[in-house]
């Protein structure tokens, strides 16, 4: 199974410890990694047990997810046993299947894993009632992402936007920048204005290659549009396509300026993503802007003294083409065993109530279009959630998560390494496109 690089990068950045046990229970653990969550009450599932596996753990995500499962237990009377999977969700669940003990419900953090599990028969199609809630509350793009070969398997419960650029408000004020940029041309001008004011414009944690794939995906989606994005993600068009070269040329407008990057390209390539956050928001900032996903807000709060909304803010990734991109990822609930408890939990996960419980706690974005934005605890999260919902069917899943690991998810190889080389020397657009195509062709065989 491929490494779950999105999850690993996020959890490492947030400083979450993936322990063998999860100390969030209101009852005693039932052995091993399993944790009871919520007491049994009255309801249709009284006396029944539902087993759940997901990546979320700790006092941040794990404790918040516990409240969702608690609500389900109180609503149905079910006893819920939750098992944290660790970073490599696919490998963990594969071992459970091979051992004859898969959970009733699992949450998968990659669309490619959902498809793989569907092909192997490890997950069951959604029951009718869950599918009805899904169709009522989710845009078609989310229904499609949870489907394979004409059947719907997953409900995307939690999502994230990778189309946000975080900035230090004081740096913009000092440079006389009144409004954040909305177009790529304005973004380049903003970078130059910051540089002219004596500030380094951008920090990039390029030692983590996935950071650069996020840049490319945002620019490419905006330049080429959703249909081309879909074709490229499946390697139905080549990486030597003119749209790919145009995206690379746009990136070179930023990456090609030594003084635009904290530490220059060499310094950026030696900085992992967690280290790039204090470069912008730490006590001794070295840059003014940080392109990164919505979860950067949590790191700003926990790792620096800056306050989101006061010292730090974000603007949507600027439009390099006709429209601004919205690229992200998500965690899909799937049914691994067809039990009454699994059916009820999947139906519950698709409801607005289930989304609201976590949304009110913060650190969460739901693709559920029926959720009132007022459920989010602050204006920053409401703006990010609105961008995801407003994107509708133009939202696109992280392309590198859709690709074979050899191309889109391997350290020191494939797209990660080629884009790192391009950051170091963005002068050869044609040569870089050719290298991407060769790597993709090898991986998609």
Overall body shape: globular
Whole-number mean pLDDT: 91
Report the total helices. Answer: 21
**What is the number of domains?**
2
**Main sheet makeup:** 7 strands, mixed
Please name the CATH architecture of the largest domain: 3-Layer(aba) Sandwich
Which class of secondary structure composition applies to the elements? Answer: alpha/beta
- Could you tell me the CATH topology label of the largest domain: D-Maltodextrin-Binding Protein, domain 2
| The level-1 CATH class of the largest domain | Alpha Beta
Polypeptide structure, described:
By secondary structure, the chain is α/β, with parallel strands linked by helices. The protein folds into 2 domains: 5-160 and 329-397, Periplasmic binding protein-like II (D-Maltodextrin-Binding Protein, domain 2); 164-325 and 413-443, Periplasmic binding protein-like II (D-Maltodextrin-Binding Protein, domain 2, 3-Layer(aba) Sandwich), CATH 3.40.190. The chain contains 21 helices and 12 strands. The chain has helices at residues 5-14, 58-76, 89-98, 111-120, 128-137, 140-145, 169-175, 184-196, 209-224, 226-233, 242-255, 264-269, 273-281, 296-303, 340-349, 352-359, 379-391, 399-402, 405-408, 414-424, 429-443, and strands at residues 35-37, 49-54, 79-84, 105-108, 147-148, 151-152, 154-161, 164-168, 289-291, 312-316, 327-335, 396-397. The strands form 3 sheets. Strands 1, 2, 3, 4, 7, 11 and 12 form a 7-stranded mixed beta sheet that branches. A 3-stranded antiparallel beta sheet has the order 9-8-10. Strands 5-6 form a two-stranded antiparallel ribbon. Helix 13 packs across helix 14 (296-303) and helix 20 packs antiparallel against helix 21 (429-443). It is globular and about 70 Å long. Mean pLDDT is 91; it is low at 1-32. Keywords: Signal, Transport. This is Carbohydrate ABC transporter substrate-binding protein, CUT1 family. It comes from Thermomonospora echinospora. Pfam families: SBP_bac_8. Belongs to the bacterial solute-binding protein 1 family.
């Amino acid at each position: 199974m491929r490494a779950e690089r999105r999850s690993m990068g996020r959890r490492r950045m947030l400083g979450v410890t993936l322990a063998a046990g999860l100390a969030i229970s209101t009852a005693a653990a039932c052995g091993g990694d399993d944790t009871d969550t919520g007491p049994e009450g009255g309801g249709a599932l009284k006396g029944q047990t539902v087993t759940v596996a997901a990546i979320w753990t700790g006092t941040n995500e794990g404790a918040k997810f516990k409240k969702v499962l608690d609500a389900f237990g109180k609503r149905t009377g079910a006893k819920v046993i939750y098992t944290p999977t660790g970073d490599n969700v696919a490998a963990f669940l594969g071992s459970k299947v091979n051992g004859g003990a898969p959970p009733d419900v699992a949450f998968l953090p990659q669309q490619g894993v959902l498809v793989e599990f569907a092909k192997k028969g490890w997950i069951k199609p959604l029951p009718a009632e869950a599918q009805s809630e899904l169709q009522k509350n989710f845009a078609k793009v989310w229904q499609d992402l949870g489907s394979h070969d004409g059947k719907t398997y997953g409900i995307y419960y939690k999502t994230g936007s990778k189309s946000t650029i975080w900035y230090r408000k004081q740096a913009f004020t000092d440079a006389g920048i009144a409004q954040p940029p909305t177009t790529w041309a304005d973004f380049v001008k903003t970078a130059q204005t910051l540089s002219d004011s004596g500030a380094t414009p951008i920090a990039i944690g390029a030692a983590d290659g996935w950071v650069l794939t996020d840049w490319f995906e945002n620019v490419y989606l905006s330049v080429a549009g959703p249909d081309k994005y879909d074709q490229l993600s499946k390697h139905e068009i080549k990486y030597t396509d003119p749209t790919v070269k145009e995206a690379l040329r746009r990136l070179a407008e930023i990456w090609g300026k030594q003084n635009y990057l904290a530490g220059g390209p060499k310094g950026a390539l030696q900085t992992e993503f967690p280290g790039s956050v204090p470069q912008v928001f730490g006590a001794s900032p070295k840059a003014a802007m940080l392109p990164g996903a919505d979860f950067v807000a949590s790191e700003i709060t926990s790792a620096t003294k800056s306050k989101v909304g006061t010292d730090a803010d974000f603007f949507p990734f600027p439009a390099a083409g006709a429209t601004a991109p919205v690229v992200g990822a998500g965690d899909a609930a799937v049914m691994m065993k067809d039990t009454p408890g699994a059916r009820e939990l999947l139906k519950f996960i698709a409801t607005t109530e289930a989304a609201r419980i976590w949304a009110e706690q913060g650190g969460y974005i739901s693709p559920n279009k029926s959720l009132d934005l007022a459920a989010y605890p602050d204006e920053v999260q409401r703006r990010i959630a609105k961008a995801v919902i407003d994107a509708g069917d133009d939202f696109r899943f992280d392309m590198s998560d859709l690709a074979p690991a050899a191309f889109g998810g391997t350290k020191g190889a494939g797209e990660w390494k080629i884009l790192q080389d391009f950051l170091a020397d963005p002068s050869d657009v044609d040569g870089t496109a050719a290298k991407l195509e060769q790597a993709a062709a090898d991986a998609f065989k």
